[in-house]
Design brief:
The structure holds two protein chains of two kinds.
Chain A: E1 8-9, E2 17-20, E3 29-34, E4 37-42, E5 52-54, E6 63-66, E7 69-74, E8 83-84, E9 89-90, H1 96-103
Parallel strand pairs in A: 1-3
Antiparallel strand pairs in A: 1-2, 2-5, 3-4, 5-8, 6-7, 7-9
Chain B: E1 2-7, E2 13-14, E3 18-23, H1 29-37, E4 43-44, H2 55-70, E5 74-81, H3 89-97, E6 103-107, H4 108-111, H5 113-133, E7 138-141, E8 146-151, H6 156-175, E9 179-182, H7 192-196, H8 202-222, H9 233-237, H10 243-250, E10 259-263, E11 273-277, H11 283-292, E12 297-302, E13 315-319, H12 322-327, E14 334-335, H13 337-340, H14 346-361, H15 367-370
Parallel strand pairs in B: 3-4, 3-5, 5-6, 8-9, 8-12, 9-11, 10-11, 12-13, 13-14
Antiparallel strand pairs in B: 1-2, 1-7
Helix pairs in contact in B: 1-5, 2-3, 2-11, 6-10, 6-14
Classes of the chains: A mainly beta, B alpha/beta.
Chain lengths: 104, 385
């Protein structure tokens, strides 16, 4: 990869995830570019174009942050370089399922 | 800045000069279609509303139909009713006639069946088309333009590229004194705190919180997780994980200007600048609502790709990624994917979108117009009766 090239974007300096702008494979080194600099992350699983990976370890129950804002909570421990998506993150809004569980 | 538009008797500026054939009720859909089929250049819509609706829905249908026909892109209008419906066709025609544009109303039960109705309406419509054909574009101020902001079939690049670029274009229009409408309330959920901070007054901020709460209650009442409805399966495949993430990307369409007002579905904004309309995330219902609120032009970002158009307003499609742009070139007007590719800045593509808005206002046809795409849907509040 040439100097200055990158294959992932960090939307805000407080984010703990980056978005792949190329398909990334397990073992690839992602180069994630953000306003506060460029970070290298070893990818653990295939990350399709547009999908997210963790920039640091995210413990279960803690916030997943993109655009500098909470986009959901980790439902399991997520390791740095792992795919971050519906299998390990849940939203906290529009959760009618939780309302019903609470009511019974 | 100036554009060339059609000046209506009430001073509103149209960028198209349509004859619209509009049924007041589902039962008049076929007659409306047959009228439009005989009038070259007429546009028509069909819908499932106008009767068997409780008062809040009937009022919303009436407001949407009247607003749609009152849109300045409509030069003349034929309203077709059945006669026994809740949304009265004559009342609708009176509301549209307040704009000063020519309006004719034909009610099937009064005229004496559909054959007579179609014949009478075609006669009236041919006079209207002749009149519209003689009307010329005049120089108008860009501040008379209301832009509808829409996103659909979003992917992760929508929030990174297409929406921020549209936001830059929206800021440019607002700077020129125009109006820009942010919509799709479900897709503001999780980002309402950021929008509320941009409200011009505590009342407007309160209103933003209120419409988001009202929209979220829909999912809560149904006892289900909103995920897989919103974000939809295609959004998820495109990398969007939660509704909050989708919303935080969606609001970039609204640029950086202050939020002046929050209006109801299909209600015309009273303020210039950036406003919010409470519409659903359903693209066609949302666009119909904004156009009924007076928007003459729509900018629509998409990551997965969608062909949707509007019968009376040009819809400019902005692709969020180059792969989809290349794949669906026939349906896409602008490629914001070049931002992700590192080829262009958000500001560059924002200017490109702004210039396209001006060109389309002056008469350039969008891909959706060229292909004749014009979907129409009215948002329903309660159950059908």
């Amino acid at each position: 990869m040439s100097e200055g090239a990158y294959n992932a974007l960090i939307m805000h300096e407080n984010d703990n995830v980056a978005t792949a702008i190329k398909d990334l494979e397990a073992g690839d080194i992602a180069i994630a570019k953000g306003e506060s600099g460029t970070f290298e992350v070893k990818i653990l699983k295939k990350i399709p174009f547009g999908h997210k990976f963790a920039l640091k370890d995210i413990p279960a129950g803690s916030a997943v942050t993109k655009y500098g804002e909470t986009i959901g909570l980790a439902t399991q421990d997520i390791r740095k370089g792992d795919h971050v998506h519906v299998h390990n993150v849940e939203g906290t809004r529009g959760r009618g399922d939780k309302v019903r569980q609470g009511a019974h | 800045m100036k554009i060339m538009g059609y000046v209506r008797p009430n001073g509103a500026v149209g960028i198209r000069n349509h004859l619209l054939v509009l049924p007041s009720v589902v039962c008049a859909n076929d007659a409306a279609r047959k009228i439009a089929e005989q009038l070259a250049g007429a546009v028509w819509v069909d819908h499932q509303h106008g009767c068997a609706e409780l008062a809040p829905d009937a009022e919303q249908t009436r407001r949407t139909l009247a607003g749609f026909a009152s849109n300045p892109n409509v030069g003349a209008c034929i309203i077709v009713g059945l006669g026994c419906e809740v949304v009265n066709a004559h009342g609708l025609a009176e509301a549209v006639a307040k704009t000063g544009k020519p309006v004719e109303c034909f009610v099937i039960q009064e005229v004496g069946g559909t054959v007579n109705t179609v014949a009478a309406a075609v006669k009236a419509g041919s006079r209207m088309l002749e009149m519209l054909s003689k009307q010329e574009r005049e120089e108008c101020d860009l501040s008379s333009i209301t832009l509808a902001l829409e996103c659909g079939g979003s992917d992760a690049c929508s929030g990174i590229a297409a929406n921020p670029a549209v936001g830059a274009a929206s800021d440019m229009l607002v700077e020129q004194g125009g109006t820009s409408i942010l919509s799709e309330t479900q897709e503001l959920i999780g980002a309402e705190h950021l929008l509320a901070k941009r409200a011009v007054s505590p009342e407007v901020a309160e209103r933003i919180w209120y419409i988001c709460k009202r929209a979220e209650e829909g999912a809560l009442k149904m006892g289900v997780d909103i995920r897989y409805t919103n974000p939809a399966p295609g959004n998820i495949e495109g990398g969007i994980t939660t509704l909050e993430e989708k919303s935080l990307g969606c609001i970039h369409k609204a640029g950086h200007t202050p939020i002046q007002e929050v209006v109801e579905y299909a209600e015309a904004p009273k303020k210039k600048g950036l406003v919010i309309m409470d519409t659903p995330g359903h693209d066609v219902e949302s666009i119909t609502g904004m156009v009924a609120g007076g928007a003459q032009v729509v900018v629509f970002t998409t990551g997965r790709g969608t062909p949707v158009g509007c019968p009376i307003a040009p819809v400019i499609k902005v692709a969020s990624n180059t792969t989809m742009y290349e794949c669906m070139r026939d349906n896409m007007d602008i490629n914001a994917g070049e931002i992700v590719d590192g080829e262009k800045s958000i500001r560059d593509v924002g200017k490109e979108i702004f210039d396209e808005i001006i060109a389309v206002c002056n008469g350039k046809k969008t891909k959706a117009e060229v292909l004749g795409f014009g979907s129409f849907a009215v948002n329903r509040i309660g159950p059908t009766q």
